Amino acid sequence: NNNNNENREINLNSLFDKVDEQLVSKYSVKESTSIFLTSLDYGGQEVFYSLHPLFLTSLGIYLVTFDCRSFSSQATREESEESLRFLRHWLCSIVVHSRSKNGELPPIFIIGTHKDLISSNEYAKISEKIYHSFSQSPAWQCVQPLREGIDPTQSVLLWFFPVDNTKGRNDIIISHLMSCIERSSRAQKQTNKVPFSSI
Q: pTM for this one?
């Protein structure tokens, strides 16, 4: 019986090795123009904060989201302060856990959800609030702005990407955001390869 367990363990180990090899060959980038991205939703709950050191790395691209309504003219002061606290926490966590050995930080995109529930006239005010709250943060050097002219309703640079969650890719900003993420991914120097067996 003990011998069967040893054989089973050996068989499982060889099976995992084969799976690792298959995953590496399936997902490794070979001289192609395709890019494979994996997204992880860390959730906003405090119970997940202890996992940040395990998953926040210099090889990531970070999308930090907030609800645009929390900075709209209808929001209470408490709602705005809570959103600022949440954004501050995430930006600080990214700085602490994802700085590379040479001190560089990965790209950060700040995304405002539920833009369909506020007036587009409020985008500039929200952007200004974000800028004044975080422009002195070490993370700010990596925050990617929404360049002017992308959203036909705006003629100014925004420090966040206002998106309508209900439209998906039909939202012009989501499509643009996806292109920006792809460009950032291609621009990153991802030379550190980790064998699957060590994960």
A: 0.73
Helices first, then strands: H and E counts in the chain: 5, 3
Tens-place pLDDT, residues 62-99: 999 999 999 999 999 999 999 999 999 999 989 998 88
Can you tell me whether residue 179 is helix, strand or coil? Answer: helix
What angle separates helix 77-98 from helix 123-134, to the nearest 10 degrees? 50
- Alpha-carbon distance of 103 to 101, in angstroms, equals 5
Q: How many CA atoms lie within 13 A of 182 on its CB side?
A: 10
Cβ neighbours of residue 133 closer than 8 Å, sequence gap 6 or more: 84, 87, 88
Average pLDDT over residues 169-179: 91
What are the two backbone dihedrals, phi and then psi, of residue 31, each rounded to the nearest 5 degrees?
-25, 65
